[in-house]
Design goal:
Mean pLDDT is 87; it is low at 516-521 and 554-558. The protein is an alpha+beta fold and 782 residues long. It is built from 23 helices and 32 strands. The chain is 44% helix and 24% strand. Helix 15 packs antiparallel against helix 16. Helix 4 links the parallel strand 11 (145-152) and strand 12 (174-180). Bound molecules: adenosine-5'-diphosphate and magnesium ion. Magnesium ion (MG) is lined by residues 8, 10, 181, 206, 208, 365, 396.
Length: 782
Amino acid sequence: MAKSIGIDLGTTNSVAAIKKITTEVLKNSEGGLITPSCVTLKKKKFPFAKPEFVVGRNALEWMKQDPINTIVAVKRLMGRSYRDTDVQKIIQDKRLRYLIQRHSKGTENSLAILLAGKEYTPDEISSKILEKIRRDVEKSEGDDVEYAVITVPAYFNDKQKHATRTAAALTGLKVQRLLPEPTAAAISFGVGNIKDDDAKTVLVFDFGGGTFDISVLTISGGQFIEQGKGGDMWLGGEDIDQDLADYVLKETAKEYEIEDISAFIENQDALAKKQGQRNQFLAELKTQVEKAKIRLSAENEAFVEILGLLVDNDGDRIDVDVEISRKQFETLIAPMIAKTVELTRRVLDGIHFTPDLIDNVLLVGGSSNIPAVVKAMQELFGANKVHQHERPMLAVSEGAAILSHRLADTYECPKCGLEVSQSDINCSNCEFDLDKYKIDTGVLDIVHSAAHDYFICLENNEKFLFVEKNTPLPFTKSETFRLVNPEQRLIHMKFINTVNEVEESIGDLWLGIDSEYEEDDEPKAPGQVEITLNIDENNIIEVNAQLKTDTDNAETQSESQMTRTLSRGKADEKLFLELEKVITDANEAKYNKYVMLDLLYRSLAAVRDINMVIDPAKETVDESLYKRASLKIDKAQKMADQDESSMPAIFYAESLLDSFGSLISHKERKKIRKKMAYLKDMDENGNYQENVDALNDFRDSVNELGGVNTLMQVRKAGDICMQTDPGKANKYYRCIDDFIALFKKGEVDQASEKLRDIIPEVQELTMQFAQETSVIHKDIVK
Ligand code: ADP
Ligand code: MG
């Protein structure tokens, strides 16, 4: 039977567990329970041998030799963009040796890690860790591992969760659930400690290596209800290590009277006349400092000693030998501890709880071993409420294993080992009471809650709160919005999250209203769109947008609706951003209405393509569609800039053939139609020059038609007057009828005479009209 397991995919450490009769944390192939989340690409000694990925303890060891090709804390980069200020901070931090850059094949948003000169995404690196875990479990269990519950920080946003899913998919693991880490810890705690008929509110305080996570849950009768969550994705043991390393360097500088210790260390390769000296020192510093920190959790003092790795300007050895007392250490980390207390209070405030409403505080994560952390929580909640998990670094994986067992279709009967299904009440072989067993030992249900506030942006960037943080999931809500202009053909819906008061875009959705356009059409839609947001228990958001029409016309309804999953797009997101910019710039440039009409049609065509660029099932990018959409946007911008517009020219010719086709020869009609078809093809597929050439050629042949163009102008004047001065419009329409009657009688001169008189005023009117400007509306309002 293929196994399902729980995986704590941590920033610093990863752990796998499985639930059989009891929950067991599984040993990796090196015999450890904890696998460092460290990945290196190890070059082979033989020339031409392919380098090999090494994960875990061995990779961590290898870091001293090759820090540039060794990756730690990749979780901090998951689902992040290169431009992120936090990512930029990591890049500028000199202690990090591996290289992060913009992904050459991705959008501006994507990021790559360089290993031996090759680009890898954080998802790919993370998948190497999952792969090792899976392989090790398969080896020790002697069975395939197919399913897993993978834990993620409660504070992960949708992009980060999505990246985690991708990492799992890359190793072929099927994700049963992405479970928030604190919830997993609460499951592991609750199952042993909270009686069935108890209802308890537990605050989980997970202070690990890279992240700090808080969650408040109510546990009752096997149900885990998430009440509220918070934390900081950039706070953990790694930061403590850095502060401690800074302290050690400062003390060393004092002792040896080194003025600029950073520059001194930067310069070590040259001073020691040995390449890699500086990196080796920094790696050793990190290891020693972490050791000292861990020692300080149990002892009153610790030493950091690094001998023989630094030399001064004269080539003399500089040995690091610094003593730190627990008191000094606590002063050093006091600001960080204050921050964890403040964030804990913030979570309580957010759900209108006070500390006395919390029954238990559960401390998990390696950094919650620090006595000062325990003390701070005891001061906030009272000593008797604070529980340090017996296995603070394993609790999360245990909870994940329990849920994984619960979610598997089948499991082994705890009494006789027969494969039984989740719906079985008794074992068919030994009659064992499976239902009672599940209630006694398991988790029956988890009610997840929204990790953030979800907003949609309205006109003028006003925000509308769609789903409030902590709303129980899954959740569906529909809201109707008005279009800024009932006639608008484009609808741009922009969704954002707020995470600790900072806005994050989680995706855009564009809807094009593609019904056939006729110049004199009355607007069909009353200008409303119904948007439905559906968030599942993994916080994955699906949006449905449906245009509401007045005329219950089923056909238009189905044309103007779409559903998609947000936070997936990478390639499409980039295109939408470009399109948005083109439209915004054109609206500001105040182009004339013909140019804007053309731009609108080009935008609609681009939106049609962009919405198909990513295959929703496989999430692959259709490269040829991507190129075409990109070309369309580029062309739209150039054509507008150059005052070139083909759509109005096409409408004009269609209307001309419709009304006055009988006045021109069959051959001419055919020629116009042919050129029109070619122009449409170039609008869709041609490059800028081909498109402009087709347009000019088409315009020339329309102009060659001569007199009918004058009739078109007169009619246009009539149409314009219909809006402003209907009485006068008749004068123009009558003139056309008279002309046609005389023309058909063969009285050509007289017919021309009729026109000549009104031409100047017609020209004046149409010229004025052509200069009017317009804008493209795409926003919605509540
Ligand atoms: P993560 O879940 O982020 O991977 P863990 O919960 O595994 O992190 O915790 C790892 C962090 O805990 C590391 O920074 C490690 O140095 C720190 N840590 C582990 N044990 C102790 C201890 N006894 N005292 C202080 N810090 C510790
Ligand atoms: Mg953790």
